[in-house]
TrEMBL record:
Residues 15-80 form the Nucleoporin Nup133/Nup155-like N-terminal domain. The keyword Magnesium does not apply. Keywords: Nucleus, Transport. One of its GO terms (biological process) is protein localization to nuclear inner membrane. The keyword Cytoplasm does not apply. One of its GO terms (molecular function) is structural constituent of nuclear pore. PANTHER family: NUCLEAR PORE COMPLEX PROTEIN NUP155. It is found in: Nucleus. It comes from Escallonia herrerae. This is Nucleoporin Nup133/Nup155-like N-terminal domain-containing protein. GO terms for cellular component: nuclear pore inner ring.
Length: 92
């Protein structure tokens, strides 16, 4: 509440051109991350995406968006989402 006790009270996003991905026309409604650097996005299309990236310099930097809730992996994703719902604190 502005007193500095909540580290998630204010989030500042910085554009990093080397880590950009297309949204494929999907509006992202929520972004959250884990202590280990995993970034998850909730799409208005009802799917959950993970922003997968590698660190490094030059051509070694890579970034991609993976849908966790579509296709064959949807059963596994539902199991993962149960874990994620209990483990993640969304930044809103």
């Amino acid at each position: 509440m502005g007193d500095g006790s909540d580290p998630c009270a204010e989030v500042s996003l910085q554009p990093l051109p080397e880590y950009s991905i297309p949204s494929d026309g999907v509006t992202m409604t929520c972004i959250t991350c884990t202590d280990r650097g995993h970034v998850f996005l909730a799409g208005r299309d009802g799917h959950v995406y993970e922003l997968q990236y590698t660190t490094g310099s030059g051509w070694n930097k890579r970034c991609r968006k993976v849908c966790l809730t579509a296709g064959v992996g949807s059963v596994i994703s539902r199991m993962q989402s149960r874990y994620l719902n209990s483990a993640l604190k969304p930044y809103q």
